[in-house]
Structure to design on (347 residues):
């Protein structure tokens, strides 16, 4: 089965029947560049040419939305180098929580900015604390995760664009139920547990632990069990993401057409993306990132000044503008490699 007529395939992209193990290995690592589970699955599956048509049908189950900026949102940041994806994990709030915070709908308890370098050789996944206290257009100061509840995906994108100073090329939102289903479809994932703790009736033991979907969901939601609260939860979310990536690029997953179809069919109904992230864009993205290895994906956190209480009594996480300016520059100028070496990998 051939790729779409209007898609120019690179000369080194071989047919799936090619026996050269180096070609198969190169294609395998094309799958890990998208960051979040849903985008990883969609890009991985669609990039496998032999199953393109059937998988494209599964992809069409994804909900799409148009991203726009309102009158109060300000100008979109000027284009920088590289590409930026906003990845959101949402959790439907209870009526009691919604009333208490004067918002409705979903909250983005997982928020990650994925920066892909201009040469397609490095990927940087930056997590935001859900309580980071920032300007939300039309709503004043608020926790960054409330932008999704106030104004949907568009406002979440605008809020992050305004704060980071770089444009968001695409956005993907997955409901937490989709994360649970994805992990179960993959027959569970191995995750590094930071310490012994209990959450939602599940026991976690320090070290590497194999988690099913329900256990993984409770793990990424857990916050109050840790002295570092939301900061540790962000690290736990990244740990689950790493576990999912490892499982997705394993040979048994990639060589099993039924498992691939089951995976995308499971997660697609829980996915929302911008309308520009169609199947053709996913194919091109997968091809452009075919040389990425797992060691080329780096995880970090947005700089902050730590928790504090506002004059109104709200517990939030303060910003660190001086440190954030360094990250903004690295994102805009595509110098994340130097930023990571100077501010993350060396502590």
């Amino acid at each position: 089965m051939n790729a779409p007529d209007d898609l120019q395939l690179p000369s080194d992209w071989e047919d799936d029947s090619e026996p050269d193990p180096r070609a198969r290995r190169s294609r395998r690592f094309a799958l890990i560049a998208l960051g979040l589970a849903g985008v990883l699955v969609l890009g991985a599956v669609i990039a496998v040419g032999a199953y393109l048509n059937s998988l494209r049908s599964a992809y069409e189950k994804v909900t799409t939305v148009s991203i726009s900026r309102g009158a109060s949102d300000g100008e979109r940041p000027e284009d920088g180098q590289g590409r930026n994806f906003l990845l959101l994990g949402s959790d439907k709030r209870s009526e009691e929580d919604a009333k208490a915070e004067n918002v409705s709908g979903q909250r983005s308890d997982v928020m990650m900015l994925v920066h892909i370098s201009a040469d397609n050789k490095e990927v940087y996944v930056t997590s935001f604390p859900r309580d980071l206290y920032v300007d939300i257009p039309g709503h004043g100061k608020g926790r960054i995760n409330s932008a999704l509840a106030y104004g949907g995906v568009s406002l979440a994108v605008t809020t992050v664009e305004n704060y980071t100073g770089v444009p968001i090329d695409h956005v993907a939102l997955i409901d937490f139920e989709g994360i649970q289903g994805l992990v179960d479809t993959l027959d569970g994932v191995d995750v590094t547990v930071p310490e012994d703790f209990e959450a939602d009736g599940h026991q976690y033991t320090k070290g590497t632990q194999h988690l099913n979907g329900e256990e993984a969901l409770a793990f990424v939601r857990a916050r109050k069990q840790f002295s570092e609260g939301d900061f540790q939860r962000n690290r736990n979310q990244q740990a689950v993401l790493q576990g999912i990536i490892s499982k997705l690029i394993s040979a048994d997953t990639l060589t099993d057409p039924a498992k691939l179809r089951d995976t995308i069919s499971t997660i697609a109904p829980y996915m929302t993306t911008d309308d520009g992230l169609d199947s053709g864009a996913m194919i091109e993205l997968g091809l452009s990132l075919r040389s990425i290895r797992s060691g080329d994906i780096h995880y970090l956190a947005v700089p902050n000044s730590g928790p504090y209480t506002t004059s109104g009594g709200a517990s939030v996480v303060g910003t660190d503008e001086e440190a954030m300016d360094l990250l903004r520059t690295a994102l805009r100028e595509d110098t994340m490699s130097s930023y990571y070496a100077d501010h993350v990998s060396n502590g």
In short: The first helix runs from residue 21 to 28.
